[in-house]
Amino acid sequence: MEIGKEDPYYLSEEEKKSRIEEISQKIFGKSSRDIRYTMVTNYIHQQLLDEGLTRTGCYQWINVFRGEVKYPRDVLDFNDYDIVQVNMSAQDIHLVQNIREQLGSDSKTKIVLNNDYTTEVWGLSFDYPNIISREINGADMLFGTEYFQSTALAELSGRNVSVIPHPADVKRIKSLTPVPKKELLTTIWRRYDAFIYIPHLVTRNHGITTQLIGYDKKLDKKVWLTTTLYDYVYAGTNYLDFCNQLQESKVMYDPFTFHSYSRTTVDTAALKTAVVGSSRTQSVPLLYPYTTLDPYDVRGGRILINKLLTDKSFYDKVIDTAYERVEFYNHLNSKYRYMVALEKSLEEKDSNVNQVIYKKELVKGRGDDILQVKARELNRNGNKKTN
């Protein structure tokens, strides 16, 4: 993802703050500091609350707007809020229309729906597209955290959908007590793709200790294999300990094979950790442009890791670039993107007419229809029996 001149990254803090206040007055008739915000979900991640909402990701919006997270049953009146945000998870997607019905037709409350599910797992999470279209179009604003999510949402909704990465508390992460670097080459585990075999080929035999962090053996079909591929394997932990794991790593390898925002590399950038990462994620090419490659590129990965371990000037350039660019995800820039997108969405919604799909006469192609092939197989089997 390239940073364009229209992005808040290139505006002064005063310009961003002024624009946020202008939009807030226009939409809500109040200062942005007074916006009443809640995130509503049927599943609250208690660990994130226990950590003080410090973790990079969806829950950071609560800090950005100084709001709260609630179960829908605990909200007496959704009209008490200016913004009600719902994460487009399988257990929460129905909440949008439910909240819309409870708000009534003359409500000033805005419903925001975000998606941060990588599109590769949508088939496992969501049902028929027409159902999803109906549900998500109850929202005033839709956004995805990376490009491919947003294009899929646009197709489902017939609306423009913004790309808004979830925020990071960059200022806080940068203020953490530094942890000395160790001779550690760290690979991050991803529960969706469980990609550990090829990364082993990339990270082995560099003369440095290898470790796999964030591991969940309940999701691994070959625990006995994984434990032989790395010198150390560590389960997921709390956010502060996770940041310490990232800080002490000399190099981290982030080979996620799915299309994602990849918030972990936002953390590493703020912690001055060098990363070789996947070109399929949103944050890696932005923060680590010199060490981005396809996750299946074994040779390329080995070359980049070796260069980081042996070339100090290159190492410093990689971490300094990431450390500067990570402000892209800070609270102010995130709030600016959110408010600008909300203003645009409301303007478009007033004049938007959802796409009308006109059915055409079905024309059979030259290929074999899978259902007809199955029917012929059954008929042949039946004929054999009767003969």
How would you describe this structure to a colleague?
The protein is an alpha/beta fold and 387 residues long. The chain folds into two domains: 8-167 and 331-351, Rossmann fold; 175-328, Rossmann fold, CATH 3.40.50. The protein contains 17 helices and twelve strands. The chain has helices spanning 13-28, 46-50, 60-64, 95-103, 122-125, 129-136, 147-157, 170-175, 197-203, 223-229, 239-248, 264-270, 283-287, 298-310, 312-325, 331-351, 370-386, and strands at residues 37-40, 68-70, 83-87, 110-115, 141-144, 162-163, 182-188, 209-215, 232-235, 249-254, 274-278, 292-293. The strands form two sheets. A six-stranded parallel β-sheet has the order 2-1-3-4-5-6.
What would the keywords be for this entry?
387 residues; alpha/beta; Rossmann fold; 2 domains; 6-stranded parallel sheet; 17 helices; disordered N terminus
Write the layout of secondary structure elements.
Blueprint: H1 13-28, E1 37-40, H2 46-50, H3 60-64, E2 68-70, E3 83-87, H4 95-103, E4 110-115, H5 122-125, H6 129-136, E5 141-144, H7 147-157, E6 162-163, H8 170-175, E7 182-188, H9 197-203, E8 209-215, H10 223-229, E9 232-235, H11 239-248, E10 249-254, H12 264-270, E11 274-278, H13 283-287, E12 292-293, H14 298-310, H15 312-325, H16 331-351, H17 370-386
Parallel strand pairs: 1-2, 1-3, 3-4, 4-5, 5-6, 7-8, 7-10, 8-9, 10-11, 11-12
Helix pairs in contact: 1-16, 9-14, 12-15
